[in-house]
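Ticket #4471: structure output looks truncated?

Reporter: J.K.
Steps to reproduce: submitted the chain below (637 residues) through the standard prediction queue, then opened the result file.
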Amino acid sequence: MMRGEQKDERTRALGDRAFTRRKNRWKILRTILEVIVVGSIALSLYRLFFVHQEYHPYDASLLSFESEHTGFIALSYFGVDRNGDTSTRIGHAQLRKHLQALKEQGYVTITQKDIEDYYLHGKPLPRWSLYLMFEDGRRDTAILAQDVLEELNYKATMMTYASNLLTHDLKFLQPNELLELKDSSFWELGTNGFRLEYINVFDLYGNYLGELDPLRYAQLQPYLGRNYNHYLMDYIRDRHHVPRESYNHMKSRISYDYRRMKELYEEHLGTLPQAHILMHSNTGRFGNNRDVSAVNERWIRELFPMNFNREGYCLNLRNSSIYDLTRMQPQPYWPINHLLMRIKYDIDQPIEFLSGDVKRQEGLKLLEGAAELEEETYILTSLPTGRGLARIDNTEELKDVGLSVRLRGNAFGAQQIFLRSSKDLASFICVELVNDQLLVLESGNGQKKELYREKIPVLLGERILSVEEHRKETEVQENLTFSRYAESEGQIREYMARAKARQDQPAATVEEGAAPYEGPQSFHARGDHELELELRGEVLALRLDGTPVEKEIRVGLLSPGSVYLGASWEGEAWSQRNLSDDVYDGVFESLVLSSYEGAEDKEGTVVFSTELAGWDKFVYTAGGIFETVLTWFMNHL
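Returned output as attached by the reporter:
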């Protein structure tokens, strides 16, 4: 084609009216969505700082008699975002659901003054008392939590780090915003201390990293285990765990934080907040070291009327110390019944769990734990250190079945499907995702037999790093991170050279015979897998995320039986953030169970399904599409 002809083609394309109309429609749609997003943000900011309802304290008639007093619970959320798809901040809708459920249980919020009067002056509290906190002082937390507090007439404490008062980081509330927040009547102010900083940090391979600020820590968190501490918890130590500072230097260092914190709050807010959280203690005192604990305790008692010194449990009773309070930190992935289950077993009082769509749960019989059916998702919550169990009704005589489901519970814990099960679960065939593995068990005659086990990454064909490769990656990333935040050109060059030198060193692979990397795993690791199974006669066929299990799985249990769903807590993984979370949620989305009548029956007859139909399905699907589009615009504006 000649150059002139190419020009003509471009000219004709520009004159293509259909193309132009499509392009203009897209521009209009994009503009409308941008206006909606920007308008929503502007409205939220306006409501936060200029338009408020007024908080009304609880009614005095709710005060409990001393003989039946049950203390108060304390919940502390790391923060709030729109979707809750981060590792720490809960979604706006999920926060509303959490707090709405507590409101329905009868909980009212109490203030710092209420806690002080309760411990120091013996004044009673309402029977169902909640002290609510949000940590880290983020702007998005204030914006997104505000309407929930107003809607429920709840009051919360916004915790901040004093050092953030000096920054102009837009993630964090500035002093004038904190004062406006306090004036709104729905908020009090508290503090996490002067700074968030980590000391005595070692990586998974025992490499000494020293002190890390939050930015470096966030970059390196995948390569860290439990071997680190918070700035106020211990002496600063060397690679041999020997203190690098004297007692007087440690005392001066820690005292500086408290003095500087007090100065900054008084300078920018006019007063020091009255509620303090010691990050992160859980030591039975005020630090990991006795000398350090004594310094912290002296300053905390001098500056604050109360201190949250522990995390994990939520219940505070009168026989506790006001300087040794405890709080629970709900995670963003907790369904509402997970929160209620944790609270129930902390307070040892009756709590009503949420069931969701009760009518559509008629085909399910809950036997243990708690369950909620929300849209197309059945969430089965285990008992603490125990299990959740539900039976699909009218399946007692099922033998040959097909089942498809999307399993969205966390990777560590067990989501189980029991087939051909006896009523007492003495005999069954169980297919489960457990601790990032696909496992098939058969039980009968008092014995359990493992028929299949494989790690999910191996099954899906993902490349498995060797220990040598992972160590190399760890040490390269550490040097790159330190180079990124280095204070001089010389340091940058030094760390970059170290990174390149380590990158150039060979590391044996699993294929070459090296040991596979199996590091510590966290309860917080999300899971999301589509499972399909087909059980005909003595053969069980499985597919995970579209990948077939190549090994033929033959079963010995041929008698018909029921189908059960299970969720089980497994204690193999660990959690640095929330040390005592022993509840697990099996999340079964779009579950469809079919019965086969013979070898020729390819499709089967649907026996049970959690999928919506008709108009409900259309609305659910459209809502998901809109949410996806809106999220894209929020992330790319």
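Triage note (M.O.): checked the attachment and the full token line is present. Residues 358-461+525-636 form a domain with the Jelly Rolls fold (CATH 2.60.120.560).
Status: closed, working as intended.
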